[in-house]
Amino acid sequence: MLDRIDMKIEVNPIPGERLLSDEPAESSSSIKKRVTAARELQQKRFKGRINTNAQMSTVDIRAYCKLGRSEQKLLSTAIDKMNLSARGYHKILKVARTIADLDHSEYITTIHLAEAIQYRGMENF
Fold first, then answer.
1. pLDDT digits (tens, 9 = 90+) for 62-98
2. What CA–CA distance (Å, rounded) separates 60 from 113?
């Protein structure tokens, strides 16, 4: 059942010193701009056929989620250690593609992939 959930994260309390800090957090409008840019990139990529990375088919995943050797090795380790199904594997790639889009990256890097794997839940990794 949990295999159908794309992202699982643990939210820790914010430390008091950070709450009291004068350093500003990223604004909601800034976050909105990044998300809007990523969504526009996805709409351009899919040319109206689908709207978002979450809707990618297996064929789309093969076309738009190509991995280099180090990324393949990382994902292979995650598949083995987390006992991922094909569904879990595909969900990680879709989330990694979205993270790469938010980063304005044409390619999925180990950083994007590691973050996506983290969102699957690290209890088995």
1. 999 999 999 999 999 999 999 999 999 999 999 999 9
2. 17
Residue ranges covered by each domain of the chain: 28-120
- Assess contact for 56 and 88: CB atoms under 8 A: no
Tokens of 13: 């309390």
3-state secondary structure of 7: coil
- Pick from 119, 125, 80: nearest CA to 96: 119
Which whole-number Å values give the CA distances from 80 to 73, 77, 125, in the listed order? 11, 5, 9
Q: What is the pTM of this model?
A: 0.84
Residues 6+ apart with CB under 8 A from 87: 3, 4
What's CA 108's distance to the chain center, in Å?
9
**CA nearest 104: which of 40, 54, 55?**
40
Q: What does the alpha-carbon distance between residue 42 and residue 107 come to, in Å, rounded to a whole number?
A: 13
CA 29 to chain centre: 21
DSSP-H helix ranges across 47-83: 58-64, 69-82
